[in-house]
Design a protein that fits this description.
Layout lengths: L6 E6 L3 E7 L3 E2 L2 E7 L11 H10 L20 E4 L4 H5 L7 E4 L4 E2 L2 E6 L6 E6 L3 E3 L1
Parallel strand pairs: 3-7
Antiparallel strand pairs: 1-2, 2-4, 5-6, 5-10, 6-8, 8-9
Length: 134
């Protein structure tokens, strides 16, 4: 965990807090860690409606998830489409097509990719597992 990481305190006692940290390189990903309160800095309260949503969904989180999903991709990387799927074919993409990552981060393991084509660029959200960095 890097200094300056943001999270949501799920439980707090006198010495330690259980914190859900948010992965800013892959939105929707998280990890949960116990952290000494001395190492935490209070930033602000969550909006009441959002805090209630988190509280109601806490049992859905994997409390044992201690690490973020990792990715070797970064914005502007050149990538190749390595899997052929109906959703890609429908948009005019084929296995082997080359594109460039448009976004700074993934969302739930998916990247926005711009594929240049003769008839115009195709911009599509693609599963990371369907891409190879080139």
């Amino acid at each position: 965990m890097k200094d300056g990481s943001y999270g949501i305190a799920l439980e707090t006692n006198q010495d330690v807090s259980t914190v859900m940290f948010l992965n800013f390189k892959n939105h929707g990903d998280y990890c949960i860690r116990e952290v000494g309160n001395y190492a935490l800095e209070y930033v602000q309260d969550l909006p009441e409606d959002f805090a209630l949503q988190i509280k109601n969904k806490i049992q859905e989180f994997d409390i044992e998830k201690k690490n973020f999903e990792t990715s070797s991709f970064e914005q502007f990387d050149n990538v190749m489409l390595i899997n052929e799927k109906a959703k890609y074919l429908k948009e005019g993409l084929e296995m082997g097509d080359i594109g460039m990552l448009n976004s700074e981060y993934a969302i739930l393991g998916k990247w926005e990719v711009m594929f240049p084509k003769n008839h115009g660029d195709i911009c599509m959200v693609v599963d990371e597992k369907d891409l190879k960095k080139i």
